Amino acid sequence: MSAATLTPGEPGPVTSRAAATGTRKPRRGASGPERKAPLRPGRVILHVSLILWGAIWLVPLAWAIYTSLRPYAETAEKGYVSLPDTLNFNNYVTAWTQADLPHYFLNSLYIAVPAVVIVLFMSSMAAFVLARFSFKLNLAMLMFFTAANLLPQQVIITPLYRMFLSMDIYNTQFGVVVINVAFQMGFCVFVLSNFMKALPDELGEAAEVDGAGVWRQYYQIILPLTRPALAALATLEFAWIYNDFFWALVLLRDGDAMPVTSALNNLKGAFFTDNNLVAAGAVMIALPTVVMFLLLQKHFVAGLTLGSNK
Fold first, then answer.
1. How many angstroms separate the CA atoms of 213 and 290, rounded?
2. Fewer Cβ atoms within 10 Å of its own Cβ: the N or the C terminal residue of the chain?
3. pLDDT tens-digit profile of 200-225?
4. Is 273 helix (H, G, I), strand (E, B) or coil?
């Protein structure tokens, strides 16, 4: 009986042993148990090296935490490289109260949060113009932003000090916010412009056909698509501005307006320094940047891998 004369529901001829037994040979790539490729020596060495370097980077942090949990009397007697008899959080309580950390934490937030918001907003607008529009000074402006970011900060201390005095913003936290925004814009414009250039031009063309203006294209189309890059930059910028002490030292005179990085000086005595207490203060000061990274970790990793599959 030929295939043309088969009636519906009638089984056809058996063409193979697999068809007769009802079994099929699994295809390559199909779901199911597969043999894993053996690890190559080069990949093993790479993994071991990464684990080793990661452990080396974590040793100072682990050592600071270990030191902060030990009483000073014990380390003075047995040395810092010794097994502990007592581990407690007394140093953290003392550092929190003696250094007045809540007040200085707020000072750092007053500086870091506005600076991060302003620099990302202004950088995204500048990057939008440089990436989505073509004009004669396009490349020159992008090079200017990048080159200005490479200017050493120490070079402009004297003129900047005189300018801030004339503008009456010296010894104010607003002045520290302004200088941080100015020095961080170059890096942010460079990163955001490169990301926006990778977005399809058809997005703007379609929006323009529908009657969307430049501002609407920016905040309703391009800006939402740059969320991973903005989150990655927000994490980096917050850590950099929060940990900055140079501009606060130069542009602030009153100790009450200083950021939290200056609070460690309150834990040092004139003739004696409790290193265990300083370690506890340093660990607490570093916590906000760790929390910021954990909150934005998903977007931060996505921002680091932008363009890797293009």
1. 40
2. C
3. 888 877 888 878 788 888 888 888 88
4. strand
